[in-house]
Amino acid sequence: MSLYSPYEDEVGRNVLRRYKTLDMLMEAAEHRAESQGTNYTWVLELREDLLWLQPLNLSAFGSSEGPMLYGIDCLLYGGINDKALLYNMDAGALLKRRYSAFYHNDATILDNTHNAESFLAGFTVAYDIPVILMPVLQFAPVSSMYR
Q1: Counting Cβ atoms within 10 Å, is residue 87 exposed (0-12), middle (13-18) or buried (19+)?
Q2: Which domain, by its residues, includes 22?
Q3: Does residue 40 lie within any of the structural domains?
């Protein structure tokens, strides 16, 4: 993440802290599902600065065999907008590796990424996670900002 390297910039370190937290949450969700003998269908991953405008209609998102990730088709910044992501269990099992993939990866596509959005795009390519970008009206989060 050359725009804000975690080795030199607090923003980059915060991205990695978020990845580590999300990785631990996914591990906990998988452990709970296993201990209860159930599986989850969807994970909705939101950044903390989002407002949600309408109910989420999960029937708009197809079921799939294998990993699948849905994101918002706006503000892509050279990658995938990471403010709101919806993914299935198979994708979650892969996405929980984002933190470790930053430090240990064999995928050259993750080297020299520009920002968190391009890192996520490279990660989905490296880990073979199909991505579908949804229109904002169908996937209805809006960013809020405090100044």
Answers
A1: buried
A2: 2-55+65-143
A3: yes
**DSSP codes of every residue in 98-134:** HHHHHHS---GGGTT--SHHHHHHHHHHHTT--EEEE
Query: CA–CA separation, 34 vs 49, rounded Å?
Result: 31
Q: Which amino acid is at 92?
A: G
Give the alpha-carbon dihedral of 49, 61, 74, 48, to 10 degrees: 10
Neighbours of 80 (CB within 10 A): 23
Domain tally, the chain? 1
Per-residue pLDDT of the chain (147 residues; tens, 9 = 90+): 788 888 899 998 999 999 999 999 999 999 999 999 988 889 999 888 777 777 888 887 877 788 999 998 876 677 898 888 999 999 999 999 999 888 887 777 667 788 999 999 999 999 999 999 988 777 766 666 555
**Assigned domain for 60 exists:** no
